[in-house]
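Quick one, probably user error.
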């Protein structure tokens, strides 16, 4: 039987995913090689549900690839979700090797993934991505920092008061602090409010109704 014959079809995959607990790992690992993005999507999800460590490297290769939207998701999004299910010691080293990659979509995905990984090493990597040259990467890094709650406030504080920040970056940083929603984060927003003369920034802060 050829390798292609070992790859599940979409119809087969719908049945397999319902009983993923009893399906052999190799079935889903083969599904990652499919040319059908729906088969890949379900295979990636199954690898996360089953915590198949052999899938980590192949799934990392899906990050940063411009896949089509599949309803409310795509292969990049499910890849981030699946990778977040593995121990940080398997994931963080891979992120470190890719964090300065020229692929903007890849850096976005890494920023997204770091939001699901707790710890100082994760926030440290996000402190690099929050200084990215691309607005979308900065957006994802700020969203992920907000998930780290008070552990991210020092980073957000340092970034907020830097010179030559763009308006969009300031708004992303303020939004992250607002999402953290602790006394410390709200106090920092109010502190920034007293220092800025930008009407656009003040208008945004006012819209937060804090």
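Nope, works fine. Designed sequence:
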């Amino acid at each position: 039987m050829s390798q292609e014959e070992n790859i599940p079809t979409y119809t087969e995959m719908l049945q397999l995913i319902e009983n993923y607990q009893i399906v052999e790992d190799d079935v889903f690992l083969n599904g990652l090689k499919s040319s059908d993005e729906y088969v890949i999507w379900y295979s990636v999800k199954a690898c996360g549900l089953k915590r198949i460590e052999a899938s980590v490297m192949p799934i990392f290769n899906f990050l940063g690839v411009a896949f089509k939207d599949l309803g409310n998701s795509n292969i990049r999004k499910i890849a981030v979700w699946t990778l977040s299910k593995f121990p940080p010691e398997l994931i963080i080293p891979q992120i470190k090797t890719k964090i300065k990659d020229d692929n903007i979509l890849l850096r976005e995905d890494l920023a997204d993934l770091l939001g699901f990984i707790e710890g100082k090493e994760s926030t440290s990597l996000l402190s690099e991505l929050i200084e990215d040259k691309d607005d979308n990467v900065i957006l994802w890094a700020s969203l992920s920092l907000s998930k780290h709650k008070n552990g991210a406030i020092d980073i957000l504080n340092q970034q907020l008061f830097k010179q030559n920040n763009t308006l969009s970056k300031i708004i992303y940083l303020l939004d992250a602090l607002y999402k953290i929603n602790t006394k410390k984060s709200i106090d920092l927003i109010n502190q920034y409010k007293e220092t800025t003369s930008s009407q656009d920034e003040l208008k945004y802060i006012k819209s937060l109704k804090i």
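The mean pLDDT is 95.
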